[in-house]
Specification:
The structure holds two protein chains of two kinds. Chain A is of the alpha/beta class. Chain A has helices at residues 3-9, 29-38, 58-69, 74-80, 98-104, 106-116, 128-141, 156-165, 187-198, 214-223, 231-240, 245-252, and strands spanning 14-20, 43-48, 92-96, 120-122, 145-147, 149-150, 170-173, 205-208, 226-229. Helices cover 44% and strands 18% of the residues of chain B. Bound molecules: pyridoxal-5'-phosphate. Chain A: The alpha subunit is responsible for the aldol cleavage of indoleglycerol phosphate to indole and glyceraldehyde 3-phosphate.
Chain lengths: 253, 393
């Protein structure tokens, strides 16, 4: 069984962290992953930076730009992660846009992920229909889970289709926004969280976008299996460097 | 072979809709509706009437006598420069604003580089009384001050794109992010034959009035509908798509596409995507684009802000791959010279984008009896400062 599926079977709410690989410094990637695991994080999304991240707000755009300026890229990320499974055992997911993977070669990219011990991918601009037709067989061959997004605007019918193509979990975008909005969750989100919970999907849902403190984490996981924090963690890295990761995690749960 | 879009939204291997799920409902709504809406008699009547009375169509097909003498061939100029707002861009914005109204949208967003598409969008929003927000790279805002002022006078809000290289590509990213943040009441008017399906096809259809007119105009003047060649410049490729559209499947018509070589194709300062690009994904579309080996999109360069885009529309990527179109790349210097030559020979000051198309007359030899139609996509008023700086007037 894939590490993601195993983790999701545990009787607890999942706290997952996203950060941009190569940020704040090129060679911080491995240390940050190790510190996050030590701090009790359940799963990590390692951001492969892209020049034109359409679905990201200013915080992640800026960390991606810095990471690219630092020299981060597919080849270097794989090199940094080649021994990661000697020290880290929680699920690791690479989150990135499709073009860098396409240039690397989708099959070669998947093969490399499998070799290193990456468990899944999140590719916001690879539509589920294209994935199902052209790439699912390759992902399956290498035992990789590809995670899809749903939003408050996604129809029930499409959610059921996405659920049928997915394994692992469904990434539930909290509101109609790019990453990093900090408006908090109101009754609109609560209704949406409930509506999705009531669909009784085969895959558990993990909420992302706009989770930035203990309160939003708690709200998001009232109905869902877990939550992902991105921009708030990157802001923490920006302000504190990579030294006080445990403090950040403690403040969430 | 078909050069039109197929039912899945592709031109050969190019096209599709590589968009985040957040955009799916909007793009899907458009995909399901655009053919239906634009086929309604009511829509067609309003579109045609606005093109006639408001834009000033048909635009003349002008026989350029002195230019023809100089190059010893028969050259016609399709005068999109005479349209209201000074370029072909308005054909598309009129069409899309009518679609947006049909879809019940209240708020319009757009991206712009040189400001021509921004002005054309602000114009139709004023015409229809809709809110208009135009994203423009911070650097372009500085370079194109008169068009920024025009948009403001027309009631639009101009928002600076501060991310990345702060030019057209980043303005497009910001417009897409706005659409993600405003998924219900907003329509995004893309300004070229780019973006996720159905945009390239929808924009092409609105611009196809250019070649539709060329056919009957040429019939009147030459006794035949088909020229020997059609020539257009390509940024994203909307004036080119419109100029080619009704000739794509007429094999006797040669199709010539002109990209900006900037300071030279291999100078590191160029926008010659068909020569430098590789297959990739940009702004929701699989096409040729300029990128690093690692798949990061690179910053193009051209003296003409309208050609300064790191990709080409998927239709043009397909025309390049199949060899249906012949691609040329023209440097800044050669384009500027060709622009000045048109001023002197014909009394027409062209947009620098269009000057790139004119410059092909020096690169390709046509026969005296050939009928060559060049898309004069816009007028040069917006470019006066660039002309002044370049020639030290
Ligand atoms: C006059 C003119 N011609 C051509 C272009 C290039 O756009 P496209 O390739 O979509 O025709 C522009 C874009 O701003 C323009 O203003």
């Amino acid at each position: 069984m894939n590490r993601i599926e195993q983790k999701l079977q545990e009787d607890k709410k999942i706290l997952s962290i996203y950060f941009s690989a190569g940020y704040p410094n090129l060679n911080d990637t491995v240390q940050i992953i190790q510190d996050l695991e030590k701090s009790g994080i359940d799963m990590i999304e390692i951001g492969l930076p892209f020049s034109d991240p359409l679905a990201d707000g200013p915080t992640i755009q800026a960390s991606s730009t810095t990471a690219l300026e630092n020299g981060m890229g597919s080849e270097i990320l794989f090199e940094q992660l080649k021994d990661i499974r000697k020290t880290v055992s929680i699920p690791l997911v690479i989150m990135g846009y499709f073009n860098p993977m396409l240039q690397y070669g989708v099959e070669a990219f998947c093969a490399k992920c499998a070799e290193i011990g990456i468990d899944g991918l999140i590719i916001p601009d690879l539509p589920v229909d294209v994935y199902a037709d052209e790439y699912k067989a390759t992902f399956d061959k290498y035992g990789l889970i590809n995670v899809f997004l749903i939003t408050p605007q996604t129809s029930d019918e499409r959610i059921r289709f996405i659920d049928s193509v997915s394994n692992g979990f469904i990434y539930m975008v909290s509101s109609a926004s790019v990453t990093g909005s900090s408006a908090g969750f109101g009754s609109t989100q609560e209704d949406y969280f409930k509506r999705i919970a009531d669909l009784n999907l085969k895959n558990p849902q993990i909420v992302g976008f706009g989770i930035n403190n203990a309160e939003t984490f708690k709200q998001a996981t009232q109905y869902a299996k877990g939550a992902i924090i991105g921009s708030a963690f990157i802001t923490h890295l920006k302000e504190n460097g990579s030294s006080k990761i445990a403090d950040f995690v403690k403040a969430i749960r | 072979m078909s050069y039109n879009v197929d039912e899945k939204g592709y031109y050969g291997q190019f096209g599709g809709a590589y968009i985040p799920e957040m955009l799916y409902p909007n793009v899907e709504e458009l995909r399901q509706q655009y053919l239906k809406i634009t086929a309604e008699p009511e829509f067609k009547a309003e579109f045609d009437q606005l093109l006639k009375d408001y834009v000033g169509r048909p635009s003349p097909l002008y026989f350029a006598k002195r230019l023809s003498e100089k190059y010893n061939t028969k050259i016609y100029l399709k005068r999109e420069d005479l349209n209201h707002t000074g370029a072909h861009k308005i054909n598309n914005t009129i069409g899309q604003i009518l679609v947006a109204k049909k879809l019940g949208k209240k708020r319009i967003i757009a991206e712009t580089g040189a400001g021509q598409h921004g002005v054309a969008t602000a114009t139709v929003c004023a015409l229809m009384g809709l809110e208009c927000i135009v994203y423009m790279g911070e650097i372009d805002i500085q370079r194109q001050a008169p068009n920024v002022a025009r948009m403001k006078m027309l009631g639009a809000t101009v928002r600076a794109a501060l991310s990345g290289s702060r030019t057209l590509k980043d303005a497009t990213n910001e417009a897409i992010r706005d659409w993600i943040n405003n998924p219900v009441d907003t329509h995004y008017i893309i300004g070229s034959a780019i973006g996720p399906h159905p945009y390239p096809d929808m924009v092409t259809r609105f611009q196809s009035v250019i070649s539709e007119e060329i056919k009957w105009q040429l019939k009147e003047k030459e006794g035949r509908e088909n020229p020997d060649y059609v020539i257009a410049c390509i940024g994203g490729g909307s004036n080119a798509a419109g100029t080619y559209y009704h000739f794509l499947h007429e094999p006797e018509v040669g199709i010539i596409a002109v990209e900006a070589a900037g300071k030279g194709i291999h100078s590191g300062h160029s926008a010659a995507t068909s020569k430098l690009g590789k297959v990739g994904i940009i702004h929701g579309c699989k096409t040729l684009l300029m990128q690093t080996p690692d798949g990061q999109i690179t910053e193009p360069y051209s003296i003409s802000a309208g050609l300064d885009y790191p990709g080409v529309g998927p239709m043009h990527a397909h025309l390049a791959e199949t060899g249906r179109a012949e691609f040329f790349s023209v440097t800044d210097d050669d384009a500027m010279k060709a622009g000045l030559e048109l001023c002197k020979l014909e009394g027409i000051i062209p947009a620098i984008e269009s000057s790139h198309a004119l410059a092909v007359l020096n690169d390709k030899k046509f026969k005296p009896e050939d009928v060559v139609v060049i898309s004069l996509s816009g007028r040069g008023d917006k470019d006066l400062n660039t002309y002044i700086d370049h020639f030290n007037f």
